[in-house]
Amino acid sequence: MFGIAALLLLAAAALAFMALRENANLFYTPEILAENGQPETGKVVKVGGWVEPGSLTYSDDGATMIFTVIDNSPHTIRVNYTGIAPDLFREGQGVVATGQFGPEGDFTARQILAKHDENYQPRELKPLDAAG
User: Fold this and answer.
1) Strand ranges (DSSP E) for the chain?
2) Which domain, by its residues, includes 96?
3) Is 116 annotated as contributing to ligand binding?
4) End-to-end CA distance of the chain, in Å?
5) Is residue 7 part of a domain?
6) How distant, in Å, are the alpha carbons of 26, 65, 99 from that of 84?
7) CA Rg, the chain, in Å?
8) How far apart are CA 16 and CA 22, in angstroms?
9) In what helix (H) or strand (E) does residue 131 lie, and over which residues does it extend?
10) How many alpha carbons lie under 13 Å from residue 55 in its C-beta half-sphere?
11) Among positive and negative, which fits the CA dihedral 34, 37, 41, 42?
12) What is the DSSP letter of 108?
């Protein structure tokens, strides 16, 4: 009886570990990609770092923005994103993009999250701060 209970507990722990490992909410930085290689083509992953100053451009029709993600290494990730960027998205700011790598190594984002520092203040509250 004890052996069966131990076996069931071990199986439950293994399943929980596998589920947590698959759903870990981590992102790849340019340095990690350079060290570990690119994930398989088509797999949905997150990349993160800072938007390189001077790298933000738009496609000819203006619908797609293209920018470079950097970290504290010499490596970079080129990102394409079609959609409306978050209000906090700017060059030099932190970004996490969810999407897929293509066969040529290009990253196509389907969602962009802009990160802010501890001094962030919503745009709507700035007039209140100036009056006070």
Assistant:
1) 44-51, 57-58, 64-70, 76-82, 94-101, 107-115
2) 26-117
3) yes
4) 71
5) no
6) 24, 9, 15
7) 20
8) 10
9) helix 126-131
10) 19
11) negative
12) E
- pLDDT for 129 equals 47
Q: pTM for this structure?
A: 0.70
Amino acid 87: pLDDT = 84
Residue 78 inside a domain? The answer is yes
Q: Do the Cβ atoms of 102 and 41 come closer than 8 Å?
A: yes
- What is d(CA 109, CA 81) in angstroms, rounded to the nearest whole number? 5
The residue among 95, 84, 82, 101 whose CA lies nearest residue 40 is 101
Q: What was the pLDDT predicted at 127?
A: 53
**Amino acid (one-letter) located at 72:** N
The number of distinct structural domains making up the chain is 1
Domain assignment of residue 50, yes or no: yes
- Angle 42-48-51 (CA atoms, 0-180°, nearest 5)? 115
Q: How far apart are CA 39 and CA 97, in angstroms?
A: 15
Please report, as a single letter, which amino acid is at residue 84.
I
Whether 41 is in a domain gets the answer yes
Which of 16-20, 48-52, 68-72 has the least mean pLDDT? 16-20
Residue 59, domain CATH = 2.40.50.140
Percentage of the residues of the chain whose pLDDT score is greater than 70: 77
